[in-house]
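User: Predict the full complex structure for these chains.
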Amino acid sequence: MQDRPTALELLQAMRDLLEREILPSLTDPRLKYQTLIAINVLRMLEREVPDEEGRLRAELGALQELLGLSREEPPVDPALLRRCVLEANLELCERIRQGLADAGPWRQRVLAHVRSAVEEKLRINNPSRLEAFLAEPPDEE
Amino acid sequence: MGDRRSSESARVDGLRTGLERFIGCRADSAVSIIALSPLPGGTMRHAWAVDLDVPSGPLAGSHRLIYLQDRGGAPLGSRLSREDEFRVLSVMHGAGVRVPKPYWRVPPGDASGVAPGLIVERVEGETLARRLMQDPAFERARAHLLEQIGEELARIHAVPTDALGCLSRPAAGKTPAEAQLADLESTLRQIGEPHPALELALRWLGGRVPPSERTVVVHGDYRLGNFVVDPGHGLSAVLDWELSHLGDPGEDLGWVCMRFWRCVDSPGARGLGPRQRFFDAYAGAGGQRLDPDGALYWEVFGNFRWAIVTLGQAYRHLSGAERSLELASIGRHCAEVEWELLRFLRRF
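Assistant: Here is the predicted structure of the two-chain assembly.
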């Protein structure tokens, strides 16, 4: 186990530095713009780092269920876990390309799964956008 | 900090001297640059505002210009070379389309030492969507902007394509949609990441390709952000022709309607007005009217294309073609486009 500060605490410290000291001292508009992007990226990472493995395990379980794969115990090694999720997603893509999700009940399951996977990505990448999306009235059709 | 600042100002001085030499040769006069400053934004190129004074010769007077500097790395597959972009701007300018007047193309390896790029007129006005939508100063311009955007697009689509042989066109035997989808799919395959939402969209689009009735110059990125707007008379110029190509007019129409640009109203957010007003203005100025299926198709198509563009930008960084935090972070925008695609696909 790593000593404190944790990865999350270091990310926050980095963002504080950029926001409070670097950004106000900049005059070049291009550097200001790039720094704002960096701050935004750090915010994203601050959401991404906590419990990333928990989210990967949940996604793997859902994919195994959707694809009818045997539900093995997810790997403990984070890199291996990531690899498993990637491969299951590649398999899902392959089946969609083959037309297996063009119609029928499996299409509905795929749509529901993909929607919730995209929702998880948005929760990290752009939670305010997600909130706005979720607040929208359902489609007319 | 002192060292940095002086190396920065040396860089600006070097560019100033180079530009004076480059422009001097073409203006047939010694010229002086009164002001030179970097402009923010632009993921593909650095932009500089250039205020130029020409004391004599055919260009005598003051000129407000922009120098768009090419950036390193090969351009994305479908982006125009600078020569071709310069030609498109010239043709559009000649046809009366509101574009910045093109001045010169700085070729690679020019004797002036200026890095390759374009020098074009600097059209004054606002481009930022947020300001155009919210700033009270643009209230008057806002009232008619959607109509102006529709009319201008009809004007662009009416420009004869024969002077623009340089633009890419659909491969023989393929409709514009089929040809574009094949290109976009190959980019997706090249990137190699799994994106189930994009695969679903690709199946949907591939199975519903509309027949092609007319081939026009498609701007390729026609949206708020690429319009220069004057608070008084509204639309002053259409920028960023790097993605233009020959194709189906529906492509630009669908692109305008995408929620991310805030041109037209979408379920969650107000734009400049209902999309019908834009379609009416386009048709009123001689453009073709899309049926509802066609409009839906091209809007889904636009979102799919935008998703691939965001992945492609991140891939430029990841592949090492151009290391940039900005490009890298654009990759994370793909998820919101996927959400939007699923909103359409859920109905089918």
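DSSP finds six helices and no strands in chain A.
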